[in-house]
Amino acid sequence: MKPGEWIVGANMCFRREVFETFGGFDTGLGRKGTASLLSNEELALFEPIGLSHILYDPKLLVEHVIAPERISLAWFRKRVYWQAVSDMMSGAVDCAAEAVAREYGVVIASLEPEHRNLKCMSFLPKDFERFRLQLRAIYLSAVMSGDGFARAL
């Protein structure tokens, strides 16, 4: 993998030596029942392993049963929010307040005027591009909130 590339952990395998050398998964991340959608526990191992030691083969496939409720707009909104939380907890996102706020402003300005407020988080998008912008606004909003909490600690 190259810096900035990202893959999901649905079909990963690790050699035993990885865990013997670097320890196991970060138990502070990952799903715990239905209370949250935290993730990134496998990605937390990437940095100590080193990207040059991680191989990706797009020919390897995984079959995954997806529950119908996980293909709704509401579920994707929730999932994106929790991805932001996961990224902040694992250090996978730069929470530089000015840059995040600047991008949030660009995203909000790209929406129709009636959605340039908190409605941006829950309006019914008319197309995929509007939904993509909505999800990005949710992600950035969560990062801005998380950055504020982190500064307060």
Give the ordered list of helices and strands: HHHHH
Uncertain runs with pLDDT below 50, 5 residues or more?
none
Number of E-state strands: 0
Give the overall form.
Answer: globular
Quick summary:
By secondary structure, the protein is mainly alpha-helical.
Structural description of this entry:
With about 150 residues, this protein is mainly α. The chain contains five helices and no strands. It has helices at about 15-20, 45-50, 75-90, 95-110, 130-150. Helix 3 (about 75-90) runs parallel beside helix 5 (about 130-150) and helix 4 (about 95-110) packs antiparallel against helix 5 (about 130-150). The two termini are about 35 Å apart.
Q: How would the blueprint of this fold be written?
A:
Layout: H1 16-22, H2 46-49, H3 73-90, H4 97-109, H5 128-152
Helix pairs in contact: 3-5, 4-5
Task: Provide keyphrases for this structure.
44% helix; 153 residues; globular; 2 domains; mainly alpha; 5 helices
